[in-house]
Amino acid sequence: MLYIVYIEIDRSIQTDWLEWMIDVHVPDVVETGCFTDATIARDADADTTERAAFRIVYRAGTSDDFARYEARFAGRLQNEHTTRFEGQFRARRELLPIIQRTSAP
Question: pTM of the full predicted structure?
């Protein structure tokens, strides 16, 4: 399962937000044990004059792993983000089942 968080963050706090995401939030999410890894990506094509756009892609091994994340951890972790950056971002989330994954030999 891919859990994708689309974030548009106010440009005035972009550096602080990105440092917090890299150093605190994304590691906290992965350390729940519900995801195998996460990737933070910049989406400059989705920027606006006021906000910079990012995508955080978390990979869960199974739908049960994601369900466990939602039931036990999502509320607290999302609340930490909202409390810290309230009124300075827009977010939406998407969950996609992985059909095929191919790795380099």
Answer: 0.93
